[in-house]
Amino acid sequence: MLFAAERLMTSCHLSIDLVIGDVAITQGKSYWACCVDPSSYLVKVGVGLESKLQEWFQVPQDVVSPRYDPDSGHDSGAEDTTVEAPPPYAFLTIGMGKILLSHGSALTSRDPNGCTVPLPPRIGICLDYEQGKVSFYDAVSFRELWECGVDCSGPVCPAFCFIGGGALHLQELVANKQDRKVTIGAFPKLD
Q1: How many whole angstroms separate alpha carbon 182 and alpha carbon 59?
Q2: Which of 121, 125, 145, 152 could form a disulfide with 132 if both were Cys (CB 3.0 to 4.6 A apart)?
């Protein structure tokens, strides 16, 4: 199921709910943490360009099908000349108490255990806006899980996608290490 999660956005009939942070990040480094309920069906945790996240979920229903092909249908070669730009969003996929590490050679491995890691109690997300980079951490041990580039050419928002139902608690990192519930847009800034 986790392998199919990367294709779910264009080929599923499950309910998909997107929650976008109400405060966009436009500079500096930002860090926040969240707890994903291990019984959640499928949850994507990450960030994305505000404009692209909204476009992503406003695709007409007749376009969202397994037969949809975004290719223009002509062989002008224009598609081949695009410069490799960072993606407009980056998500960590979580399901069944595991995290799919969808990068590197893990996806080509025949060993499905080599592509997943157990879900930690908290996941930390650190966005470095100027570097155009997002890092995901085990927020208990501070071990890095995954790092990737993300397009920061405009306002970037935290985003959470729930596919087929799930639960998540956002947590603010505070000096005395107490967890407290925060609203989706109240993220501490790191200097």
Answers
A1: 30
A2: 152
SS3 109: coil
DSSP state of 170: E
Does the structure show a pLDDT above 50 at 30?
Answer: yes
Place of tokens 């249908």: 73
* pTM as predicted: 0.69
Which domains can be identified in the chain, with CATH numbers?
Answer: 16-58+86-102+115-170 (2.60.120.920)
Q: Report the chain's C-alpha Rg in angstroms.
A: 17
Centre a 10 Å sphere on the Cβ of residue 151 and count the other Cβ atoms it contains.
17
pLDDT per position as a tens digit, 136-168: 999 999 999 999 999 999 999 999 999 888 899
CB atoms within 10 A of CB 159: 23
- How far is Cα 149 from Cα 128, in angstroms, rounded to an integer? 10
Question: What is the secondary structure of 66-134 as a DSSP string?
Answer: TT---S-SS--SGGGG------SEEEEEEETTEEE--SGGGGG-S-GGGGEEEPPS-EEEEEETTTTEE
Q: Which residues does residue 128 pair with via DSSP β-bridges, in sequence order?
A: 29, 133
What is the band of 4 on the pLDDT scale with cuts at 50, 70, 90? low
What pLDDT was estimated at residue 32? 93
β-pair partners for 46: 91, 159
Q: What angle do CA 44, 50, 51 make, to 5 degrees?
A: 115
